[in-house]
Design brief:
47 strands, 671 residues
């Protein structure tokens, strides 16, 4: 026999080698004295004992001794489904076929069944509320036994989403939470009304097997995962397979320090309470994955199938242990013992090292393994030397010279690197027990990948020198070529600049002159007026303007043609240009309208000039343009004496023109 550093005992026998270890879990079954291997419920009693109910009776475990609770029905032991301790220490029992029993003097005594008012003899959950009323959850609804002994029945026909009651719990506000085969409902003891808790359709949850209620949340073990209900706003989130939970169906929730222990039909799951809340608060954040531990037969359980559908199916005991009802007895774990086991030193080794698929001898500590050039794939296989929980060890690796940060490998015991450049590297690996800090146990393998001749520094320097010479020669040649091109481009630029200046002048002239009459256009007129109006006002000078319109011009276009109309506009424009003197300006306003600027004139003076123009146009013989054609015009005149801006000056001239038109045309009017 040999005891190793982890306190396991190795025994050599004529039938091979055996290991005797202290497993994380231990189990109690029929071989250790229980009435039944198939355990449905386990209760932690205030006197330090444990009550274990199974398919063939009820047992009491205290000081590692089992006591059978007497009581049979027609000679057969009771099949126990649920247990409850009353405030004074009495134990109540829910059965599969016999309703509710009570333990009196270490014997099961019938209390309530179908014969005296219970809805069903299949009782899966029991609860004494803060008012000392007994709530009984059965397969046919919910029954409340009041303190005076009267019964109140609640069924799925009225109050409940389903008559199949699986779990009962009371929160700090004295509300009763009821888990059924079709969701959850809450009974408000103040209003005596039932409020259904609607599971979101996306969760696909239906069964509620157990509750855990803290200050902020109600946690529910369902057939689709761990559901969290927020008291403040009723918001619900779920921890299921999508967020990393290994199974969907959960039966019971047992809080213990900073962990939640969850029972399932595939083993016992331990998760960190804080991390679960962080994941549920931001389920779309994929930066972290759920860290959990799944315990099963390899950890000492006789069966990984924990039982549910009855309460309590798991419980935390006063001695720091947690107990779970399973298909092969009741299993217990002491988290403190798990923590002690993870404090044992954990050596790490590199088992093998291969290059491009070929195994290599590992270098002695401190030596550097030299690898040939052209290496494309490196593989490292490593292990943590622990027999306590080897399948749960976590690993981290680091390749100094390539990536100086530790990379999480989880439970993977191999690491590969491809196409590493030539150079010196150090591969390091370290291991840790689950949910513990990393131990300073890293193993290092030093190696160097040699370079091809073209990868060496001397070759790179030679290539660099040749490259510099070639670049310089090319630079000199290109410099000479660019100087020749520069001369030619300079000549072209001078010519094109002159052409562009001429073109720009032409464009500028076209932008400010009318194409038909070669008079300044409206843009030029508006610009002149905007630039000079304020100067005239500042110097207290008069400025008169006039707007002229060819009378009945549409008749000319319609009676002769638009071509004749254009000739009339040109002839009128020539007459107007011939009479502009000094700083007087005339512009084509648009269509058949023209504008005039009379600097240093008032309306009377401008009106006289306009009358002269009007009479000259009226007396003009237009027969050379079209036989029988006569043309008259109308003027509207205004000046700057009583206006403060040029827009108002234009408006007054326009009003005067309308006045001339309304008074019969072929006249000059003033506003």
């Amino acid at each position: 026999m040999l005891q190793d550093r982890e306190n396991s005992i190795w025994v050599g026998t004529n039938a091979g080698v055996f290991r005797l270890r202290e497993a994380p879990f231990s189990s109690w079954g029929k071989k250790r004295g229980l009435s039944s291997d198939y355990v449905r419920t386990v209760l932690s009693h205030s006197d330090g004992s444990l009550w274990i109910g199974g398919s063939t009776g009820l047992d009491r475990l205290q000081n590692n001794k089992i006591t059978h609770i007497k009581g049979t029905k027609q000679g057969s032991p009771y099949s126990v489904l649920s247990l409850l301790e009353q405030s004074q220490g009495d134990v109540w029992v829910g059965t599969y076929t016999s309703g509710v029993l009570k333990v009196v003097n270490n014997e099961l005594i019938p209390y309530l069944n179908r014969d005296n008012g219970l809805g069903s003899n299949e009782v899966r959950s029991l609860l004494f509320d803060s008012k000392n009323r007994l709530w009984i959850g059965s397969a046919m609804g919910l029954t409340r036994v009041n303190t005076d002994g009267s019964l109140v029945q609640f069924t799925n026909e009225k109050e409940l989403p389903s008559g199949f009651i699986l779990a009962l719990s009371e929160d700090k506000a004295a509300n009763i939470w009821i888990g059924t085969g079709n969701g959850v409902v809450v009974y408000n003891t103040n209003t005596e009304e039932f409020q259904p808790i609607q599971f979101p359709k996306a969760f696909s949850a239906q069964y509620a097997f157990g509750f855990y209620i803290d200050d902020k949340y109600t946690w529910m073990a369902t057939d689709r995962g761990l559901l969290r209900y927020q008291h403040a706003n009723g918001h619900m989130t779920i921890l299921g397979r999508e967020l990393g939970l290994p199974v969907d169906k959960l039966f019971q929730i047992v809080p213990f320090k900073d962990s939640l222990w969850l029972s399932s039909n595939r083993g016992i799951i331990e998760v960190n309470y804080k991390q679960v809340n962080e994941l549920l608060d931001s389920p779309t954040n994929n930066s972290q994955s759920l860290a959990f531990q799944l315990y099963d037969e390899g950890d000492g359980m006789l069966s990984a199938q924990a039982n549910g559908g009855s309460t309590p199916s798991a419980t935390a005991h006063s001695d720091g242990t947690i107990w779970f009802a399973t298909a092969k007895g009741v299993s217990t774990v002491k988290p403190a013992r798990l923590k002690e086991a993870t404090e044992i030193p954990l050596p790490t080794i590199v088992e093998s090292f291969s290059v491009d698929g070929k195994p290599m001898l590992l270098p002695v500590d401190g030596e550097t393994l030299v690898l040939p050039p052209g290496v494309t794939r490196l593989s490292f296989h490593y292990a943590g030397l622990s027999f306590i929980m080897p399948q749960r060890l976590n690993f981290q690796t680091k390749m100094k010279g390539f990536n100086n940060e530790w990379i999480n490998r989880q439970h993977i015991a191999t690491a590969e690197y491809t196409n590493l450049p030539a150079g010196k590297y150090s591969f390091a690996v370290r291991a840790a027990y689950p949910n513990t800090d990393w131990q300073q146990n890293h193993k290092v393998v030093n190696f160097e990948i040699q370079s091809h001749f073209w990868q060496k520094t001397s070759f790179k320097l030679l290539v660099f020198f040749i490259f510099v010479v070639v670049i310089y020669s090319a630079y000199r040649y290109r410099l000479y070529h660019y100087k020749q091109v520069e001369k030619e481009l300079t000549s072209r630029v001078v010519k094109q600049t002159q052409a562009l200046q001429e073109q720009a002048s032409a464009f500028a002239y076209q932008a400010t002159h009318d194409q038909l009459t070669d008079l300044p256009n409206r843009r030029a007129f508006d610009g002149w007026l905007a630039d000079n109006f304020s100067d005239f006002k500042a110097c207290n000078k008069s400025l008169a303007i006039a707007i002229m319109d060819i009378d009945h011009f549409k008749r000319i276009n319609d009676g002769w043609s638009h071509l004749i109309g254009d000739q009339v506009i040109c002839e009128v424009a020539n007459i107007l240009k011939a009479h502009c003197k000094g700083e007087q300006e005339v512009a084509r306003w648009g269509g058949e309208e023209f504008t005039f600027v009379f600097p240093d004139m008032n309306t009377v003076q401008a009106q006289q000039l306009c009358e002269q123009l009007r009479k000259e146009i009226e007396n003009k013989d237009f027969s050379s343009i079209a036989q029988g054609l006569s043309v008259t015009v109308s003027f509207g005149v205004s000046d700057s004496d009583n206006v403060d801006d040029y827009d108002r000056l234009l408006s007054y001239a326009d009003q005067a023109l309308y006045k001339a038109k309304n008074n019969g045309r072929n006249r000059t009017e003033v506003v």
